[in-house]
Specification:
- Helices cover 52% and strands 0% of the residues.
- With 82 residues, it is mostly helical.
- It has a single domain, classed as Orthogonal Bundle (Non-ribosomal Peptide Synthetase Peptidyl Carrier Protein, Chain A).
- Helix 1 crosses helix 2 and helix 1 packs across helix 3.
- It is globular and about 35 Å long.
- The termini are close together.
Length: 82
Amino acid sequence: MLSRDEIYEKVSAYLVEMFEVPPEKITPEARLFADLDLDSIDAIDLIVQLQNLTGRKIKAEEFKTVRTIQDVVDRVHGLLAP
């Protein structure tokens, strides 16, 4: 199972590679939509990447309350918990 730090590193890399988010803007508290300018299509693309990472199907509804990078990390970590 991936640790929270490993998940954070993967999510950060996705944000830089896929959405061209400047690395200095990526912090656990950064809000996906307000701070990083992601939109709903970007969120779906991120979920697809997270599905590839976890090997599990992730429903978009499970991410409706996600607002920050830390929220993403926590949700993915929760999905991976036995």
